[in-house]
Amino acid sequence: MLRPDVDFLNHGSFGATPRCVFAAQQQWIERLEQEPIEFLAPERTLLPKLDEVRELVGTQMNASPRDVVFVRNATDGVNAVVRSLPLRAGDEVLITSHGYNACSNAVRHAAQRAGATVVVADIPFPIRGPDEVTDAIASCITPKTRWMLVDHVTSPTGIVMPVNDIVELAHSRGVRIMIDGAHGPGMLHVDLKRIGADYYTANHHKWWCAPKVSGFLFAREEWQDEILPTVISHGANTEGFGETKFQSHFNWPGTFDPSPLLAIPTAIEFLSGLHSGTIGEGEGMATLMRINHELVVSARRLILDRLGLDEPVPETMLGSLATIPIPQWRDRTSDQMREIGRRLRVEHRFEFPVLQIGNQGCLRIASQAYNSIEQYERLADVLLQIVQ
Description:
This is Isopenicillin-N epimerase. Helix 5 runs parallel beside helix 6, helix 7 (about 130-140) runs parallel beside helix 8 (about 165-170) and helix 12 packs across helix 13 (about 285-305). The chain has two domains: about 25-265, Type I PLP-dependent aspartate aminotransferase-like (Major domain) (Aspartate Aminotransferase, domain 2, 3-Layer(aba) Sandwich), CATH 3.40.640.10; about 280-385, Aspartate Aminotransferase, domain 1. Helix content is about 45%, strand content about 15%. Strand 11 and strand 12 form a beta hairpin. The longest helix is centred in the C-terminal third of the chain and has 24 residues, at about 285-305. The two termini are about 35 Å apart. The chain has helices spanning about 10-15, 20-35, 35-40, 40-60, 75-80, 100-115, 130-140, 165-170, 190-195, 245-250, 260, 265-275, 285-305, 335-345, 375-385; strands spanning about 5-10, 70, 90-95, 115-120, 145-150, 175-180, 200-205, 215-220, 320-325, 350, 355, 360-365. The chain is an alpha/beta fold. The strands form three sheets. It has a seven-stranded mixed sheet with strand order 2-8-7-6-5-3-4, with helices on both faces. A three-stranded antiparallel sheet has the order 9-12-11.
């Protein structure tokens, strides 16, 4: 449904919903409006429908459905966990310099209320390899570190973090770890049992292309009883609102629109079927993720070559996002960077983030099934004009 006169290279921000998924959502909304009480009341037919989606999400993420609840988005999931942590004065919580600003703010707020300290691990950018990530994090862990938050794929820099190694590092130091997997499902193969994090949260409306707004929160069973949602509702003291106390708290935040959640099966089926004609059953999503990765790698290489730049991140640390520092945009003011973004959007009809990392101006591109290499070739031509 994207406008044909705009080159939309920003799937990473909010995704884009296919027409068939949008139609499925509308059908769910119509069913809701035909029988509002029967459809929406949790004690009637809503919870079984949510459980079906929960089963699918658990299967896709290799996690028990008992350990999965639904949230509005990954920021909501991070807030629920960090605001429920039993932090005390003198504790330390660790985030990284590549963390998503909204989630970093949530961590700072929770730490401030508890009298705890936020420690920021400075991850380099450009970066040469995964060891620079783990080394930076390891150097910041102290005996006071209680909890850490690390992105699976960093929003500003598009780096796929070595989360398996980071989780192993955290647990070897006795530290709980949460992975912000906002970009994970649909971009990467996510195996929650293999990753082994204490908590993992992600969006459905990014790379799974589900309608806005929906996401999930996974928590290991031993921590579930202490986690409260950001909205306390009937599930706090009403039986029958979920298979577990964890699910009861999250299943019913009050009157809400469940249609984005209920359309997830259609989204996954659609994406999985895009390349099903030439591969074995069940491999469609993996093929799509590989193709998207190859496209963003080719697009980034094209732009780097055209501008005569070195790669800021190894190709092996990319999914289907890539951030490119532009040397000519260094030491620009915020107003100047906004003007560059405005020109690219209004004059040249591109949609993607233009951002500052420290004092370095950058752009971030994404690749999804609707993108083509010709769009990035046009972008490279436009960038060459702008930087000159």
